[in-house]
């Protein structure tokens, strides 16, 4: 399956309206659906936030110029919200999966499908 198919499958669930897959270092975009593409400094800060979340805790998470308040950050997952919409970022062995969910979707519904995709990719050594 191509990387693009993974992002399109996330959108097809109806729980995510934008998705992207970047390299683990955040230096290259592998796939994007729904128009989600981050500026280099945005994805760079997210990639660094998995190992050292203090920068995200103090300034928030920025996606396409929009500031999201950090809810959770660890070495696997970063969750953030802006009003009723949110972002779920999950790091695997080789990728960072980014997914935006709209106000009509509960955070848990969106994060569950993104985490499941991450588990699948980890199991496939990605």
Describe the structure in your own words.
The two termini are 13 Å apart. The chain is built from 4 helices and 7 strands; from the N terminus they run αββααβββββα. 34% of the residues lie in helices and 33% in strands. The longest helix is centred in the C-terminal third of the chain and has 17 residues, at 107-123. The protein is of the alpha+beta class and 126 residues long.
Task: Please write out the topology.
Layout: H1 3-12, E1 18-23, E2 29-33, H2 40-49, H3 54-59, E3 61-63, E4 66-73, E5 77-82, E6 85-91, E7 95-101, H4 107-123
Antiparallel strand pairs: 1-2, 1-7, 3-4, 4-5, 5-6, 6-7
Protein name: Profilin
Subcellular location: Cytoplasm, Cytoskeleton
Main location: cytoplasm
Brief overview, please?
By secondary structure, the protein is α+β, with helices and mostly antiparallel strands.
Question: Which descriptors apply to this entry?
Answer:
single chain; 126 residues; alpha+beta; 7-stranded antiparallel beta sheet; 4 helices; 7 strands; globular
- The 3D shape can be described as globular
Specify the CATH homologous superfamily.
Dynein light chain 2a, cytoplasmic
How does the helix and strand content classify structurally?
alpha+beta
CATH architecture: 2-Layer Sandwich
Helix proportion of residues, in percent? 25-40%
Subcellular location: Cytoplasm, Cytoskeleton
Organism: Zygosaccharomyces mellis
Subunit structure: Occurs in many kinds of cells as a complex with monomeric actin in a 1:1 ratio.
InterPro entries: PFN, PFN_euk, PFN_sf, Profilin_CS
């Amino acid at each position: 399956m191509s990387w693009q198919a993974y992002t399109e499958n996330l959108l097809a669930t109806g729980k995510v309206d934008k998705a992207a897959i970047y390299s683990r270092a955040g230096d290259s975009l592998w796939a994007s659906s729904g128009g989600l593409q981050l500026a280099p400094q945005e994805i760079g800060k997210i990639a660094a936030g998995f190992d050292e979340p203090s920068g995200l805790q103090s300034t928030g998470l920025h996606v396409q110029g929009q500031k999201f308040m950090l809810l959770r950050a660890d070495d696997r997952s970063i969750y953030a919200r802006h009003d009723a919409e949110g972002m779920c970022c999950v790091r695997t062995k080789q990728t960072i999966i980014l997914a935006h969910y709209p106000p009509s979707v509960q955070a848990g519904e969106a994060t569950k499908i993104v985490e499941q995709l991450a588990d699948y990719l980890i199991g496939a050594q990605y």
